[in-house]
């Protein structure tokens, strides 16, 4: 009952991220979990299996992340923050091109695309509030960001002025997500060419 | 190879649905499972839970469907065959409009959209060959059908002639799938308006 302090401070129910040492340990587990996912995708996503691969006890994983759902969300969030190779976006890059570039980064880590699909599927079910918040907030934030970008591109004449920026944003995100899935299942699908075509359509050329 | 000809056509290995009585019972279970899904979505998709709701033993379910994955695929396939309300498609309906109409039918059964997302997420993992075949074949068939429709619409001047029909097909399917997911998570997303916009872009108006 008296676990080592950095692993399970006494009496705390959800102490994650409370003490510097705990924060460091949590981050260490997370980094390892990201590696595991990048290597193998999400085909064996039980907490126990991940704990085993990461080399921590199941109890420690549960202690730091609570549930598989929380760990999955954290792994995805954290992976997205990792700096990718430099891919400078041209100043007149349309939203579809921006999504294409970010999708390209994801495709280098197939496990990440699988993980994202799993999270979205979980989000659509009723009993996964954390995946639901994650997906809902991610889509809302992306729509806002891209809609703003669209307005600027409309002002500079790079996107058709008669299009609703919010609808364009929703369409571009949907197209990028959906094309990525089709490409993963069949690499004959030219994800990039389809987004470039959407790009041209949005520019009105 | 000596099964009754109408029930187990040559080349079918698995004995399920081999005898008329078995076929009827299998269909009965499937119909019940579809009802269960339509009512509750896929939030509790263990075979045991479904068996309980459907009112059959777990052994019987396993006997007729083999695995949860197979049952899910069958439930989705079968639901798609059910005749929906009449929605005549205008002769010059663009591909995006056609997808919008089929998506509208799905939205009336939210459980079906969840089930579809779950199947696609399973398909992206490594250990679900049945979901993988289902999703891969569904996308390939849809792309073929829609690409053919696009060619006809290009010939009649209803879709821009400079677009690659196969890329248009992949884009329209991706947009429809992705927008449906965004709408399910946030009903402020105007799925239909976004597809209508894509429609206009494809027509070049």
Intertermini distance of chain A: 68 Å
Q: How many helix segments of chain A? A: 9
| Structural domains of chain A: how many | 2
Could you give the order of the helices and strands of chain A?
HHHHHHHHH
Sheet with the most strands, sense and barrel status of chain A:
none
Any idea what the shape of chain A is?
Answer: elongated
DNA-binding region (chains A, B): 46-65
InterPro entries (chains A, B): BetI_C (IPR039538), Homeodomain-like_sf (IPR009057), HTH-type_TetR-like_transc_reg (IPR050109), HTH_TetR (IPR001647), Tet_transcr_reg_TetR-rel_C_sf (IPR036271)
Protein name (chains A, B): HTH-type transcriptional regulator BetI
Region (Disordered) (chains A, B): 1-21
Task: Please provide a brief summary of the model.
Chain A is mainly α and 205 residues long. Chain A is built from nine helices and no strands. The first copy, chain A, folds into two domains: 20-81, Homeodomain-like (Arc Repressor Mutant, subunit A, Orthogonal Bundle), CATH 1.10.10.60; 95-203, no CATH class.
